[in-house]
């Protein structure tokens, strides 16, 4: 086995291990928050699901900040709290799509650096409910809390599917999981491993790569699209 192959295999193993650890940390924090604050459907931020993204009365910053400060950060070991900011304003260069290498998700999010050197960027996921005759989205609504995690902080490559992965928390269904594909609820998409293998290899669905690693028992297998 060549040295580059050994290095690649080591990197993959470290990535899967760190992703599993981060998933567990976030999951435990959300469990503790529910123990203290009760049913998530009664939380102050529970009304996000179904809210039109164009609703001028919906204060995205306020909702995300409330979630972060009241229901999330108190249950974590945080090394640095950057607040609700643009990623580039703190010197973060990313995230990038794996094929085109174009930047994505550059809007404001609530960003913290955990004690294990993981960036957690908190935002809201959304889903298109209506399309016009040209297949352009005409109505988009918020669905869940989105966790955009970079498992090695400021270090490169800052790329989806390599060190950046998406997780979601559905407040209505009280479900936390890796970001799936194809459903509004994000709880049981019905997609197979083969489906996720193909989805992970595309720019517009690379946010599902973490689900593939999860399905493989927190491993990055040989057929994983490690570009």
**Inertia-based shape:** globular
Order of helices and strands: HHEEEEEEHH
Q: Which range best describes the helical content: under 10%, 10-25%, 25-40%, 40-55%, 55-70% or over 70%?
A: 25-40%
The tally of domains stands at: 1
Q: Distance N terminus to C terminus?
A: 19 Å
Proportion of residues in extended strands: 15-25%
Number of helices: 4
Let me know the largest β-sheet: 6 strands, antiparallel
**Total number of beta strands:** 6
| Largest sheet, spatial ordering of strands | 1-2-3-4-5-6
Mean pLDDT: 92
In short:
The protein has 227 residues and is α+β, with helices and mostly antiparallel strands. The chain has helices spanning 3-37, 60-72, 193-200, 209-215, and strands at 78-85, 109-114, 119-131, 137-150, 164-170, 175-178.
Task: Describe the overall structure.
The structure is a single chain. The protein has 227 residues and is an alpha+beta fold. The chain has one domain. 28% of the residues lie in helices and 23% in strands. The chain is built from four helices and six strands. The chain has helices at residues 3-37, 60-72, 193-200, 209-215, and strands spanning 78-85, 109-114, 119-131, 137-150, 164-170, 175-178. The chain has a six-stranded antiparallel beta sheet with strand order 1-2-3-4-5-6. β2 and β3 (119-131) form a beta hairpin. α3 runs antiparallel to α4. The longest helix has 35 residues, at 3-37. The radius of gyration is 17 Å and the shape is globular. The two termini are 19 Å apart. The mean pLDDT is 92.
